[in-house]
Amino acid sequence: MKLTRTRIAALGLATVLALPAGVAVAGEITNSRLPFSIATSGSKEDGDRWNGPGSGHARACGDVPSSDLKTFSAYVYQDKSFMPDPQIASTSRSYRSGYGCGSYGGTTTGGKYYTKATWAGIPNSRAYGFVAAEN
Fold first, then answer.
1. Paired strand residues for 119
2. Which helix (H) or strand (E) element contains residue 132?
3. What is the pLDDT of residues 21-73, one digit of tens each?
4. Strand partners, 115
5. Furthest CA-CA distance within the chain
6. What is the three-state SS of the chain?
């Protein structure tokens, strides 16, 4: 009887400790990262498509490792066949600002999504930036 109580107590403790970590975790969505070179200005759409996260939302994030004041923008779009793709989320940031994200936009688990980036160029720069989606 004492062994059963110990097992129940241990299981309860493990559940209580593990639940907040699983609920509060936000992270980069697999296959959403889109790298780009800032040697010239440009725009790029990611060819990878990913399913909407189970969280029901996503946000656009990114970073360019430079102290320059120029800016880049990150976008998350829903891939709609034979229709214009709606923008779900976006952010615009200065290169100097470091990594950051915009506001969340709603997603569905059955939808397909992709990231897109636009950026200002710095001639002769060897730096690469990236945009990605987080849930």
1. 42, 72
2. strand 128-134
3. 333 346 999 999 999 999 999 999 999 999 999 899 999 999 999 999 999 99
4. 76
5. 74
6. CHHHHHHHHHHHHHHHHHHHHHHHCCCECCCCCEEEECCCCEEEECCCCEECCCCCEEEEEEECCCCCCCEEEEEEEECCCCCCCCEEEEEEEEHHHCCEECCCEECCCCCEEEEEEEECCCCCCCCEEEEEEEC
